[in-house]
């Protein structure tokens, strides 16, 4: 029986002391872990969940501003709004999927 108690005590001694960490360090580690967990979940999430978590909030704000302003060029206004209110401003822009590429294909034909 003493062997089991000794091995448990040794295992507990090998673990890092959680009480020795500061509350700020614990909060920072928890925030980092939650951020990584959310990114992993969003990457594997269904399309609707992904859009609701990433695009819909800023898109709805942009649509509200669009309805309030009623500019002459609503598409350009919304595009500018989305770019200027991007919650991740340090990300690289994604190349356009269509638009200029179609014109290049027609010119080359």
TrEMBL record:
- The residue ranges flagged as biased composition, category Polar residues, are 86-99
Q: Where is this region: Disordered?
A: 86-109
User: Which key words are in the record?
Assistant: Chromatin regulator, Nucleus, Transcription, Transcription regulation
Q: What is the annotated localization of this protein?
A: Nucleus
Signal sequence span is none
User: Some GO term, biological process aspect, for this entry: which one?
Assistant: chromatin organization
Which coarse location class describes where this protein primarily resides?
Answer: nucleus
Could you name the Gene Ontology cellular component terms for this entry? Set1C/COMPASS complex
- Identify its protein family: Belongs to the dpy-30 family.
What this protein is called in its record is Protein dpy-30 homolog
């Amino acid at each position: 029986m003493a062997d089991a108690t000794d091995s448990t005590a040794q295992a507990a001694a090998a673990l890092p002391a959680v009480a020795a960490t500061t509350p700020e360090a614990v909060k920072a580690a928890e925030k980092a872990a939650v951020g990584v967990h959310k990114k992993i979940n969003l990457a594997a999430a269904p399309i609707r969940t992904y859009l609701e978590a990433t695009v819909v909030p800023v898109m709805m704000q942009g649509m509200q501003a669009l309805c309030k302003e009623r500019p002459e060029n609503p598409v350009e206004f919304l595009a500018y709004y989305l770019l200027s209110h991007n919650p991740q401003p340090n990300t690289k822009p994604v190349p356009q999927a269509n638009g200029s590429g179609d014109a290049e294909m027609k010119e080359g034909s």
